[in-house]
């Protein structure tokens, strides 16, 4: 199963969601690939590969995606982590959208790369951490996966961002085929009235969608400490009650994949 973790609003918790859902899937015994499609490289850093981010001699998606002759080169980009396999981002990715601007099938390059490299035979789950925008790279992630896992803050400012994301997903759907919103993960949920109102709004909007669920992650310092240590919360050396929620997300994805 391929999953794009996407929300163009900054601070929504995309990388935290990606890494900990990937860690939960690993806990369930799955082989997982995390693709860091964000030019800022937060997932790359959060998995301890910051040295790869600015290595001038290392190939990245910046080199591969625009080159139609390198659509079977995924294996050259993958590095091993103790929990998951990773395609790190690179500082050159900041120019990737410009490089893709004039190539044929520019929104389909990641899909072509995964298909030509037989990625679905190697990994049970592929999670793509998207940039905080609705540009060509995010389009590539959604076209390649057909599934959107949406992180969001439990704040009223999330409403406009999610509405815009829905419009973009429907636009991609009309051109490239069905796109499913499979879950929303509300991050750093507080105990204030705004958070309660937003959780109600999330459930009204998302639980009407077939097989879509809403999950609630409370703010926990342990999650940041795990990110600093280069691992998910499951490999971090302190316990956290949010582990159970991420395991619930993983179980939901398993059920979705089985359907």
UniProtKB/TrEMBL annotation:
Q: Which domain of life is it from?
A: Archaea
In terms of Pfam families, this protein maps to: AAA_31
Extract the Gene3D superfamilies matched here: P-loop containing nucleotide triphosphate hydrolases
What sequence ranges are listed for the domain AAA?
3-174
The cross-references to InterPro entries, in alphabetical order and at most eight, read: AAA_dom, DNA_Partitioning_ATPase, P-loop_NTPase
Record protein name field: Cobyrinic acid ac-diamide synthase
Query: Where does this protein come from, organism-wise?
Result: Halorubrum coriense DSM 10284
What taxonomic lineage is listed for the species of origin?
Archaea, Methanobacteriati, Methanobacteriota, Stenosarchaea group, Halobacteria
